[in-house]
Design a protein that fits this description.
This protein is α+β, with helices and mostly antiparallel strands. It has one domain. Helices cover 36% and strands 22% of the residues. The protein has 7 helices and 11 strands. The termini are far apart. The protein binds iron/sulfur cluster (SF4) (2 copies).
């Protein structure tokens, strides 16, 4: 049984780099957004982000903890000729963990049905659904990325709770808006 489980190997189909529905687009931490913006500038492409998770403090300062990376169609970092990501080493956790999908804040792991490897390995996926402890054996690198993303998400959640920050949806109520890491540098 131990030797029979295959290890995930990307088939370079492109399904994880093409987006039509907003809820499928990657979520990124503020520091990932800034790295993507730097890489985009170097490569001469433009990016779009939307604040996804925002909190407000008692002074009216709004703090962004998560962004939705808005990608219409192919990702601007996708090399269509070579079927490769041009920023492979620096891509955000959401891309590094794919085809694993991480539900926040529960930490529940799911698998994307869009991925060709997942579609071609139904028996393995059934085994994983019966025993989730096998996921790191099939998806070692992807599981590591999901774990690290969850650790970061949890430490942000702890900070938000400690500071008594409240969720906010209407950014018009904000006196100022900043990313969580800038807020931590300023207010500790
Ligand atoms: S960053 Fe790379 S892996 Fe992520 S969507 Fe863009 S091309 Fe695909
Ligand atoms: S959808 Fe799956 S097989 Fe296709 S490129 Fe993405 S990770 Fe690789």
């Amino acid at each position: 049984m131990r030797g029979r489980l295959p290890r995930f190997k990307c088939l370079y189909c492109d399904h994880c780099c093409y987006f039509e529905r907003e809820y499928e687009m990657p979520t990124v931490f503020p520091w990932e957004k800034r790295l993507l913006e730097e890489l985009a500038e170097n490569l001469g492409v433009s990016l779009e982000f939307k604040p996804l998770q925002v909190y407000i403090d008692s002074e009216g300062s709004c703090i962004i903890t998560l962004y939705r990376w808005i990608i219409r169609g192919y990702c601007p970092f996708y090399d269509k000729e070579r079927h490769r990501c041009r920023i492979h080493r620096d891509k955000p956790y959401a891309c590094k963990m794919y085809p694993l999908l991480l539900e926040m804040p529960s930490g529940k792991l799911m698998l994307s049905g869009k991925c060709d490897w997942v579609a071609n390995n139904k028996k393995t996926i059934e085994q994983l659904s019966r025993n989730v402890n096998l996921i790191p054996r099939v998806f070692p690198n992807e599981f590591e990325a999901a774990k690290n993303a969850f650790i970061e998400f949890s430490s942000i959640a702890e900070y938000v709770e400690k500071k008594g920050l409240k969720p906010v949806t209407d950014l018009k109520t904000c006196a100022t808006i900043m990313d969580i890491d800038d807020y931590i540098v300023r207010y500790g």
